[in-house]
Amino acid sequence: MSTPIIDEAAKVFTDPTSYADEPRLHAALTHLRAHAPVSLVDCPPYRPFWSITKHADIMDIERANDLFISEPRPLLATAEADDMARAQLDAGMGLRTLIHMDDPQHRVVRAIGADWFRPKAMRALKIRVDELAKIFVDKMANAGNECDFVQEVAVNYPLYVIMSLLGLPESDFSRMLKLTQELFGGDDAEFRRGTSLDEQLQVLLEFFGYFSALTASRREHPTDDLASAIANARVDGEPLSDVDTASYYVIVASAGHDTTSATIAGGLQALIDNPDQRKRLSDNLDLMPLATEEMIRWVTPVKEFMRTATADTTVRGVPIAEGESVYLSYVSANRDEEVFTDPFRFDVGRDPNKHLAFGYGVQFCLGAALARMEVSSFFSELLPRLKSIELNGQPELIATTFVGGLKHLPISYELR
Fold first, then answer.
1. Residue 223 to residues 126, 129, 228: CA-CA distances in angstroms?
2. CA–CA gap between residue 282 and residue 130 (Å, rounded)
3. Could you tell me if 198 and 414 are in contact, meaning their C-beta atoms sit under 8 angstroms apart?
4. For 39-88, what is each residue's pLDDT tens digit?
5. Domains in the chain and their CATH numbers?
6. Three-state DSSP class for 333?
7. Rounded to 5 degrees, what are φ and ψ at 99?
8. How does DSSP classify residue 217?
9. Beta carbons of 358 and 255 less than 8 angstroms apart
C-alpha cells in the first residue's frame, strides 16, 4: 500500500474563491493529478476528507455505489453546516434530494421524475425549448449591441424552461431566480443571503414554503406537468413526505437551472476566446452535439460530490477507512491528461469526450438530456444570426465549492 499523501495543493478544494480564479485552480489540479491523485485534506472548518482527482478513480468509486455511498455527506460543507443539516433531517425538516439518497431509496424516488426526462418527453418539450431560445436571442437583438450575457440571458432562458416543465406561472419567475441564485451563491459575496448559516437557511425555508403551497394545489387540482407528478407520487402506496416532495422540487428547480445557465455562459465565453472554433461550429452546425458535450466538459458546473466508505478499502493503493469521505473532483477529471488529448484546448469536434460533468453510475444526472437540449437549441439559434462578438469587460466567476460558473459576462455583438 502507498503511504497516505497530504499535499497542500489539495486545500484548493476548501477555498470557494479558487473556482473564481481558474488559472490558480487548474494549476493546483494539474499538480495533484501528477503528484497526489489521492490526498488527505484536513482543513478546518471542514472535516477531513480524501480528494480524488483522476478520472479513472472517480469512475471506479461511482461504480462501487454500495462501497461508497452518498449518505451522510453528499457534498462538501463545513462541519457546522453538516451538523445543522443532520439535525434538520432528524427533525423532519431538512433538504433530502436525490443526491442525498442511496439505493434502494434512490432508485425508487428517481423513478418518480424519470419519465419526464426520457426521449419521448424531451421531443415534446423541444418545441418550447426552441421557442424560448428564439425569444432570448431576439431579446439580445432588440437590446442593442451589448449586454451582460449571464444576467440578461444565460440565467433567464434555462429557468423559463424549468418553470415550463414544472408548470409554474411566469409571475413567479423573479422569486425563483432570486432563490436559486441564493441557494448556490452562499459562498459568493454578491449573491449570498447572509454570512451566517441561519440567514442562509432562510433561503431553503422560503423554497420549502413555496413548494409546500404548490404541492397542496397540485394534489387538489392535478395538471399535466412535472409538479403534479411529484406532488401525487406514491412510494409503497404512500405519498412522499412533505420534506421529500419539497426537496424534489428544489433539486429540479435549482440544479436544473444553475448548471445549464453556467454551461451556456461558459460555452459562449469559450467560443469568444476561440474564434477558430466558433467559425468551425458556425460553418457546420452538425457539430452541435459534439460542441455541446465540449461546453459541458469545459465548464463542469457541478464541481464535486462526496462519498463515504462503508468498509475499509483502498483507492490507488491508498487506504481509506470505513466512515471516511472522498471528494470527487469532476473539474479535475475533465482535464485528465490520460483521458483527454490536449485537455486545455476547447475543441467543438472533440470525439470521444468521456467527461464526467453529469456524474457517473447510479447518480448520473437525471436532467442530462434536457441540459444538452437547451445548450444545443440556444447555440443553434444564436450562431447563424451572429455576425460578430467580443468581450466588453472582464468576465467574473462565482465563488463556490459546489455549483457555479460565470456570474458576469459583458459582451458586445452584432446580430442578423
1. 20, 20, 6
2. 18
3. no
4. 999 999 999 999 999 999 999 999 999 999 999 999 999 999 999 888 88
5. 8-415 (1.10.630.10)
6. helix
7. -70, -15
8. H
9. no
